[in-house]
Amino acid sequence: MAICQRVGIAMILSIESSCDDSSIAITEIATKKLIYHKKISQELEHSVYGGVVPELASRLHAEALPSILAECEPWFGELKAIAVTNEPGLGVTLIEGVTMAKALSITLSIPILPINHLKGHIYSLFIEKEAVLPITVLLVSGGHTQLIEVKSYTEMETVATTMDDSYGESFDKVAKMMHLGYPGGPLIEHLAKSGDATKFTFTVPLWQSPLIAFSYSGLKNQVRLAVEANEPSAYPDIASAFQYTATEHLIQKLKKYFKSHPPKRFAIVGGASANLYLRNSVTKILATYKVELLLAELKFCSDNAAMIGRAGIEAYTKGELQPYNNISVNPRCKL
Ligand code: KG4
Ligand code: ZN
Question: In the chain, how many H helices and how many E strands?
């Protein structure tokens, strides 16, 4: 009887520290219910620099993670594993979460589930839900712009990726050029609302190329020239034209891809999936295929530990449990 009860409330504690968000969650394995979730963002601290400063991020994780963990103590007795983001991300910040996971693993005598951050974003779609697969996923974040065919937790194929900058990163860089702060995505999206996209014309990246790939560095340079040549009063128009062009690039490549791979189920995940202009533009092309756009809840679009815990349940089910001394940090690893 006692054993049945313990199985019934078995939980995973998950840790996310791949960039500038310190987050811990506790998820019930059997029901996928999110029992606890807290995130401390460092946006304010990095804002003055116009981007994430890795060493500062690392120091802030070292302060924030233990303070969140202290609130999780009541559930320590129910934990079956620690899920932790160990790839990809900033080496100096990943190590903060991984070190905490190792310490907990030793103290509580439970194994670790190393989790790929990108899989975490994909499973943000299924927090407190069953996974419905297969699904085609557009992952747009600060570090990644990828089109992924997800067949299962262990079978994911990246079918298109960026050749240089990512979609979210290009918003961050344009915001930095305009001295708006960080993260640039919401700031540019807001500024673009009061602008006229037709006042500036930027070339859509790779529009003549048959490649299904993404590129943002050329667009970033076009925007830089416009910013340098104009007064701040023109920034809303530049932001609007930039957002239009950056998104049109994704739309053109999706249309091309869908010709040979019509979508049956389609989702956008990652921090930049919060962008309403992007959501609306993708919804329009999906209508042609009578497919609805699937999204994570807004609070789970940007980095968080709830998505790592949800991916952790899949990893737990697949038996991907590891002893603490088998876990390493892989900053550049892909899917
Ligand atoms: O997924 P995330 O929290 O962190 C990474 O894994 O990178 O994504 C953060 C990125 C930042 O580049 C941020 O500017 C971008 O997502 N972002 C947006 C929006 N909200 C966040 N980009 C465009 N429009 C938005 N509304
Ligand atoms: Zn992320």
Answer: 11, 10
Contact 10, 28 (CB under 8 A): yes
DSSP 113-158: EEEEHHHHHHHGGGTTS----SEEEEEESSS-EEEEEESSSS-EEE
Question: Residue 76 in 3-state DSSP?
Answer: helix
Contact 50, 181 (CB under 8 A): yes
pLDDT at 4 over 60: no
Q: CB of 143 closer than 6 A to ligand 1?
A: yes
Enter the tokens of residue 290: 């009578």
Confidence of residue 228 (pLDDT cuts 50, 70, 90): very high
pTM (two decimals): 0.95
Tens-place pLDDT, residues 291-323: 999 999 999 999 999 999 999 999 999 999 999
Same fold, 11-116+303-326 and 135-295: yes
CA–centroid distance, 269 to ligand 2, in Å, is: 9
Amino acid identity for residue 117 in this structure? H
The CATH fold assigned to 11-116+303-326 is Nucleotidyltransferase; domain 5 (3.30.420)
Task: Give the Å distance between the CA of 4 and the centre of ligand 2.
Answer: 36
Q: Which CATH number fits domain 135-295: 3.90.980.10, 3.30.420.40, 1.20.210.10, 3.10.20.310?
A: 3.30.420.40
* CB neighbour list of residue 211: distance below 8 Å, 6 or more residues apart: none
Q: Is 168 in the pocket of ligand 1 (CB under 6 A)?
A: yes
E strand segments, 187-309: 266-269, 293-295
- So where are the chain's domains? 11-116+303-326, 135-295
